[in-house]
Amino acid sequence: MRARQRLAIGLMLGLAGLPTVTLAGHQTAPSAAEARAKALVAFQRDLVSVLAPRADAQPLLGAALLARPLGNQPAPASFHALIERAAKADGAGPAVQWARLTDCDATAQACPNAEALAALTREAGDNAAVWLLKLGLDSANGHHDDVREDLRRAATARFYDDYTGTALQALATTVGTLPPPTPAIDPASPAGAWGVQVVMVFGVSGLLPAPQPGMQATARLCEEGKDDPASRESCLQLARVLEWGSSPLARSLGLHLRETLSDDTDARAAARTEMANLAWEVRNFAELSARAADDKALAQHLLALARNGGTEMSLMLAALRDAGIPTDAPGASEAATTASAAPASP
Q1: Structure-derived torsion over alpha carbons of residues 240, 242, 243, 249, reported in degrees to the nearest 10
Q2: Strand, coil or helix: 243
Q3: pTM for the model
Q4: Which 8-state DSSP code applies to residue 106?
Q5: Residue 40: which of 75, 74, 58, 13 has the closest Cα?
Q6: CA-to-CA distance for 57 and 178, rounded, in angstroms?
Q7: Quick one: which of 36, 44, 31, 41 has its CA closest to 15?
């Protein structure tokens, strides 16, 4: 399970007052906590019902994302129906098609959704995430010529965006459509209704099935081709795109490629420093997000950042900066310098 999913489960259970051990053990939750958990799910269903009649793309995207984790939804309020309508609505963009990639259950087709992927290659051909997603598929299917072309397209793309920031924006702008019902609010939490909203936004986002660009396939392809000058250059070019990517995962792969493929000792040391900083940023943002469920001002601020849009990385860095948390890990630069100066192993 991804770290973001673990955080989301912790947030959802923490707000409801449920101990996380109930996921794997047999502990019985208190009746008040069970009631809050049920009220949260009911609130989520109510939000979907209120948003479903909307005609513009962003509210429909928000409704679809809220509906995705819910079971037994009426057909008109299901993820499939809502994301199909969002894709056809005015203002629909690549972020809707990206979410539509996971629309495979009702259509009985393999994931990712082939129509959504085709639309993305047409509408977002300058996004490296689209080509890395295709690279993973082509690699799994043994289409080696297509894999090389996918790598070339990703390396020459203008940017990398997995649209997590847009999904958070859609959720944050729609979750306030209704006030949270009193039974869903933990009376012991100072965050009150704001705590419910922040958990709904970041919790639902973390629990959604997400399209997975072929990060492992890309790393393996670049490792295997490191002795080929053309392949090496493409991978280093891709590394530069990924280092400025929208997500910590993309940035991590970009730094890994720079560290393992670059001939420049200083560049490799800098990549190690930035990797340590990235791990520090992700860990501190996870802790900050977890506190938001019980901190009204922090919950309001995270929701405001999400509503402003941007990317997952930009939101994370803004939240850390505003909280006064440095984005440089203590001692990271010194450790990388020491590592680069160490003699190579025989």
Answers
A1: -160
A2: helix
A3: 0.86
A4: T
A5: 13
A6: 19
A7: 36
